[in-house]
Amino acid sequence: MKAIIFDMDGVIVDTEYLDFQLQSVYIKSIAKNPEELSHEDFSSLVGRTGRDLYDRIIALSHTQHPFEEVTLALEAIAQEKYRKEMVEKLFRKDVLKIIAFAKEQGILLGLASSSAMKDILSVLSSHDLVAQFDLIVTGEDFTASKPHPEIYLHSLEKLGVTANQTIVIEDSPSGIAAAKAAGLTVIAYEEKRMQVDQSAADYIMPDMQHIYMKVKDLASKV
Questions:
Q1: What residues make up the domain containing 38?
Q2: Are 79 and 106 in a shared domain?
Q3: CA-CA 20 to 30 A from 49: which of 82, 144, 167, 174?
Q4: pLDDT digit string, tens, across residues 88-135
């Protein structure tokens, strides 16, 4: 194993579920028939970004709110979930064990997130982790978002490693699909609060401690 690439939301910090809750409230507020929307409907938003997320919101709400208006609402949601107090509360501290292990073993660390760079840096800075990563990539820099593999293919190129030398830690169906499409081995952080299909991952682990143990196990086999 030469590299580990992390997703951020739903992996390093438990913001995916908060995003799900806040987006659900927003969609209900604009939907024509909010009482008809289900937990499964809202779960279909998980991991979506940009135009893909907008299209899904419009489909669920049966409205024609402009892209710019919805984007402003989503930016307000992002400001809420990335507040310093919220990040501190939702940060998964066991990830520090994986980072420390990688550094001890000379394993490169990457982060490939669909979130804005300012939000990525805010989360990592909360625990002085920016300098620990050899590569930080934001979905803002790519035309195609996850599940397209572009962000992971780019990360492999920049890290100078191959797919079979690298593992990815993901959570959302779109993120898992993106990593698998890039030929990567994927460990998924198990999510049971939302109806998401993580079955495409190579391994599904219930928490970061179990992911840490799996990373050590995989590293020992190389």
A1: 16-86
A2: no
A3: 167
A4: 999 999 999 999 999 999 999 999 999 999 999 999 999 999 999 999
